[in-house]
Amino acid sequence: MEIQIAVAKTKKYGSLESGDTLEIIERPTGGLSAVMADAQLSGKEGKALSSMVVRKVISLLAEGVRDGAASRAASDHLFTERGGGQPVCLNILSADLETNTIVISRNNPTPMFIAQRDRVEVLNAESEAIGASRSVKPTISEIPLEPNTLVVMYTDGLLKAGALTSESVDICTLLESFLEEQDPSPQLIADTILAQAIRLDQNRPSEDMSLVVMRVVPQATDQIRRMCVSMPVLKNQND
């Protein structure tokens, strides 16, 4: 098998910086984790807040702390630092080779999608952002790590896309169409979903938008691990 992860994100139109932060880390017991935080704020203040949360989670995962425990520790840290006044939506998506499972930790009311065995499932159980109180716990889901599995997680900016025209991104239908294709890459899936969300906002995103796609394919092409990152740098960040 081969685990593939792709990311696509954009900032709110007119904002200098996105308030979303995304990082990917190799797990000490084998596998990969993608950590996504949405500070519910745009610009430098939002980026500083979401970065603080992601750094905390990444450091704990690197020490072998379980995903749920890392979420709770990050929530306590945020509550201590900000007094409960600035909650942050947090997701951890892990391919855990020690348990041979995909572990999904949600502190985010925004749903997630899983395509497995030619069926698309929505994870939309009630979930609370971290940092609001001392009692915040993540919603944990665990599924077998097996070929032909696809998981999509994203921030609420993508969910709100098209609100002004009463439209929305139909992720479930998009995933079903991708399942009918021969071999769609996770980057193609991520780029397509994000492009549709941006289009619904008339190419002026009303919120920060971030998207992670994890795909498990049956065969590894070779024994080489790869990562590719692309970031636009504009002379005028308001363009």
TrEMBL record:
Name used for this protein in its record: PPM-type phosphatase domain-containing protein
InterPro entries noted in UniProt: PPM-type-like_dom_sf, PPM-type_phosphatase-like_dom, Ptase_RsbX
Stored Gene3D superfamilies: PPM-type phosphatase domain
Residue span, PPM-type phosphatase domain: 2-216
Species for this entry: Ornatilinea apprima
Pfam families xrefs: SpoIIE
Membrane-spanning intervals of the chain: none
Leader sequence segment: none
